[in-house]
Amino acid sequence: MKLKHSLIVVMLTLFTALVGVSAMAEEKKDAAPAAAVATEAPKAPEAAAPAAAPVAAPAAAAPATPPDVKPVLNTGDTAWMLVSSALVLLMIPGLALFYGGMVRQKNVLSTMMHSFVAMGIVGVQWAVIGYSLAFAPDMGGMGLIGNFSKFMLNGLIVMKDAASGTVEWTLFQNYTKEPGAIPELVFAMYQAMFAMITVALISGAMAERVKFSAYCLFVLLWTTLVYDPLAHWVWMTEGWLFKKGALDFAGGTVVHLSSGISALVFLAFLGKRHGFPNERMAPHNLPLTLLGVGLLWFGWFGFNAGSAIVGVNTSDAAGGLAGLAFATTTIAPAAAGLSWMIAEWIHSGKPSALGFGSGVVAGLVVITPAAGFVQPGAALIMGVAAGLVCYGGILLKAKLKYDDSLDAFGVHGIGGTFGAIITGVFATVGATGLLAGNAKQLMIQLIAVLAAGAYAVVVTLIITFILDKTIGLRVEKEDEIMGLDQTQHSESGYNM
Amino acid sequence: MKLVEAIIKPFKLDEVKDALNEIGIEGITVSEVKGFGRQKGHTELYRGAEYVVDFIPKVKLEIAVSDELVAKVVESIQNTAKTGRIGDGKIFVIGLEEAVRIRTGETGGEAI
């Protein structure tokens, strides 16, 4: 435990220092001639920021910039986004099965409940305040967090005539130069699913010993204080990382890196499961886990291909970009499943089902930030690398003997970080990375990773510390041995 | 009367049952059991975490037989359950004092 604490402290100082330095370096570059920024504007992704557009327009004297157009509802896009939202929701039961199968029989319900209750808590939180904090206009102009103007999803429906109930739907237009738009309500619900699954990912590190009440509070606090600001930074056009041009197609940084690294922080306070690593803690039902992998992959098409809605310089949700994301979301996990399986086959003698499934999830995690920025060939390479890197991450855990029960950090933390960084290497579609000669993009990716990682670490540290000192994070030792299903929920998973 | 108790490899169950039918055995009790002998357990590997499984699944047969059939039954089980590899199991022969058929109340040799 002591070792963990000091490890966290070291990591923390390292991160904050790095972020400070890199932010300063960037600041200097930004202060350089404004003319350079203006000429760069048409090809740089930050040109997509509608907020930046009015400021840049007078300086650049608007040489060839097409005029802004009014948003027009596109029914095809809307249909795809409705489907995508439902697909992403399905990932959460998928995650519940994925995790539930990997724990011992006595903890299956509690583990699945971690995912399900996140749907409840975040579903409510998102409607009340979450969407506003993430996607409302900026508070204070720093690009750090949204204001309260969309509290209770306020303003997404405009009442035209209260007497007859005539309303007008507020439209979400991603790119102001193209008319295609979807109802903002659909966009808000699509984003709600992302918020739900992100915090549920963390539960994999806490399984089999966390107190349910502490977990519920953690879900609420973490989503509000960590996820919502990060989503604002990276995806909101006014967010500071968005303006810097950080590439995160569907949430490598916001979703996977943030949840994975937060899981590690939580672990430092939570400690190991009783009996770890000597007692047998083998997965009790791997068929459930494989079914979960299947549902996750299926839902991930909504996660990645649906994210074309926020693609750079386009307003199309259902179009070529979605098709590209769909293709990379097929190729990368396929390759990653194989590379993990083969690595395991060579390294430990047998190709395991859990290994293949884990590889698929690793591939999905790694391709997430890059899904609409890379070509199929790059997706293949990234997939192969994903399987190998995350397999290495898992082995590292076995060596270091920290108890990340279901490898939330090993897969999502390591995979998310790796994916976010190499997106800056392989990007060629709608943005350019290192291989296309744009070394600056890799630098921006590193800044985004460090900033998001450091922020998630610091805030999670504070939340966890407070929860630990007040209500406590763990169940009693006896309850842990009895199993969380019995002691936290008065149920058992199997009555046969 | 004797009780023949045989611990065998699970996949051999059908073969043994058929062989016992052939020699006129009319009733067997089967249970799934776990244990270890000279074969010991095996290891399982989940995401780099290795677990030793000490007890391996076996099938236990219990057959009540008359004295004259015992040798035949033991021989039959030994022949059919044998693979020649370690872990084929054991056969125990135990003395049996009494047997009662619950439905009719018959006792002794009549009951088996």
- Which CATH top level class of chain A fits? Mainly Alpha
Shape of chain A: globular
Q: What is the ordering of alpha helices and beta strands of chain B?
A: EHEEEEHE
Q: What is the CATH architecture annotation of chain A?
A: Orthogonal Bundle
What does the average pLDDT of chain B come to? 93
* Number of helical elements of chain A: 17
| Uncertain parts of chain A | 14-62
Q: Which strand order does the major sheet of chain B show?
A: 2-5-1-6
Radius of gyration of chain B: 17 Å
- Portion of residues in beta strands of chain A equals under 5%
* Main sheet overview of chain B: 4 strands, antiparallel
SS-derived structural category of chain A: mainly alpha
Task: Tell me the number of strands of chain A.
Answer: 5
Q: Mind telling me the C-alpha Rg of chain A?
A: 22 Å
| Largest interface summary | A-B, 17 and 8 residues
Question: What is the string of SSEs of chain A from the N terminus onward?
Answer: HHHEHHEEEEHHHHHHHHHHHH
Spatial sequence of strands, sheet with the most strands of chain A: 1-5-4
How many β strands of chain B by DSSP? 6
Would you kindly provide a brief summary of this structure?
The complex is a heterodimer of chains A (496) and B (112). With 496 residues, chain A is mainly α. Helix content of chain A is 66%, strand content 3%.
